[in-house]
Specification:
By secondary structure, the chain is of the alpha/beta class. The protein has three domains: about 10-175, NAD(P)-binding Rossmann-like Domain (Rossmann fold, 3-Layer(aba) Sandwich), CATH 3.40.50; about 180-280, Orthogonal Bundle (6-phosphogluconate dehydrogenase C-terminal fold); about 290-365, Alpha-Beta Plaits. It has helices spanning about 15-25, 40-50, 55-60, 75-85, 100-110, 155-165, 175-205, 215-225, 230-240, 240-265, 265-280, 305-315, 345-355; strands at about 10, 30-35, 50-55, 65-70, 90-95, 115-120, 145, 170-175, 295-300, 325-330, 335-345, 360-365. It has an eight-stranded mixed sheet with strand order 3-2-1-4-5-6-7-8, sandwiched between helices. Strands 10-11-9-12 form a four-stranded antiparallel sheet, with helices on both faces. It is globular and about 60 Å long. The termini are far apart.
Length: about 375
Amino acid sequence: MTSIAPDRVAVVGTGLIGTSIAMASVRVGCRVSGWDANAGSLSLAVERTSLRGDASLEDAVADADIVVVCTPVPAIPEMVERTLRAAPGAVVTDAGSIKDHVVREVATLAGAAAARFIGGHPMGGSERSGPEHAAASLVDDIVWVLTPEEAADGEAIATLEGWIERIGGRPVRMSPARHDRLVAFVSHLPQVASTALMGLAATEEAGEPDILLLAAGGFRDLTRLASSNPALWSQILLSNREAIAEAIDLYSARLADLRAMVIEGRGRELETTFDDAKRARLRLAAKPQVRAGVAVLQVQAPDRPGALAELTSAMAERSVNIEDLQIVHSPEGGRGTVHLTVAATSADEALRVLASRSFDPIRLA
């Protein structure tokens, strides 16, 4: 079994996540090797980071302390089993967004060796794909779910958690089934909703060509995920079909409730529903220590080079930390709306600073 401070890391699959993990590992001094069935993806990953590209999975993992399997979900169990055989001293994990099926399949395929496999899911990513969009920062401060089974080796778990913290992530343990149900709501359902809304608008556009000209920031934010990899998301949803079906049913019921409130003119209930959702959204601050109190500031910014830098520099000069930042571009151009999330205790200072720089901020919450 590996030491608590592993030095040699291998990634199997050098797409967006695999290459980002490789970059984060190199950043802290690990020696990284990699393999991908797609030679072009591997070649690009080698160009973008200093990982050693190998001709086979077995060559890539042979001397590794930790191996992260970053292939599409259907291929993960087989790749993990091959890795466990080829690297008898390594801790093996994966980066798949479905855990229950993967963990059970690995146990069946690998037998006793499965004790060295700890299911994993780094909760970072993008609607983009491929090593060309990878970055070490993708790992920074992300929740990295681990789903160890009862038979999992305790030292393997400790080694993996220590390495995740070392490269910038935050390991969190939970059962595979609980993970799959939770991600169905906060990861998979948003993809479904985004895709459905974009599809609806595209269908309506056939008879009303100006509809997308009116699409402002809210529509763009909600449909961003519709540009994600179609094959990848089809595999994910089918692998978690029962949990995502439950999530869609519950979401549909919420929409039906909202429809009834609108049709029946129940304005007070509508306002309460929006207020409850707004309060819940504000608790999604970037860091746990500020979740108890945040403020959202809206700032109009000119669409010109340096405008955003002026805004962020002004905040930095007065030591006001930005917990989250979103930019909504105006469809008519010339300006944009910036939403800044700061700790509630810093809100008044942030308003003063921005006003002193002629940004005319408004506190939304």
